[in-house]
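I'll show one example:
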Amino acid sequence: MVRELVIPFLAIGLMALTSCNQDGGNEGGQLPVGDTLNNNFQKEQVKKILYTIPSPMAMASIIKSTGADFDKDMLNSTQTLSKYNTARQQALNLGIYGADLSYSTMFDQDQEAIQYLSAVQKLCVQLGIEGAIESDIYERLNKYMENRDSVLNVVSETYFSLDIYLKENKREDLLAMIITGGWIEGLYLASQHLSSGSAELQQRIAEQKYSVDDLSKLLDSYGENESLSEIKADVQALKDLFSAVQSTSASASTSTEENGTIVIGGGSVLSISPEALTKIVEKVREIRNKYIA
């Protein structure tokens, strides 16, 4: 029952049912801004972004596959919901709670999942976006939930429906905040489970070299926006740190070199030193804790 309830709310800009692209970044260049936001070119670019930014649900699945145990203390407590009074706080934490909802659901923690579902619903109401989604979105997501491409199309349509609604109400920056919050929390949860030593989890984190670039492009597509300036700076700081991840063409392989550098292959090889990985983990924790404060 909880899984069925989760699906529609995760579709609201949280990217929770999309999959990440493990082959590389967006090659489409910078996204257009201003009045061109809804043209066909941008729609295709946004679809690429939806593929490359990993969903909280996908990240939670990887965490679970490592054999890690559910850790409630890692999540943003729903008890803090009442202190989010600004639209910025509410949008960021809608994304964060959506990721926590995915994590709880993936580990079959129904009690926690219900609490986070309630928090997501309340934030949607507070932001005034609960009525921006087409009434048949829930049925369509349930119908196509096993088909990646069909779900992507539904989520993409939801993205644009919500984007148009927010633009008409001059609040288009909220969607960027929701997406960023979900991405940051998914990355935070993954980084907190690195002690398991999972090469797959390390790979997923290294792949964010591509995702952070696409997220940066998405934020830039909203043009000069004062409410997004600090978030853009946070994403840029992470982008700078991810530049330490090196990519070279190679056959699929995963290994750890004598100096401790993690090397992950799969069409291309991503390598990152333990020092660089530590810096990324620390920065993600810093940004995430700032957003939930």
Residues 2-196+277-292 form one domain.
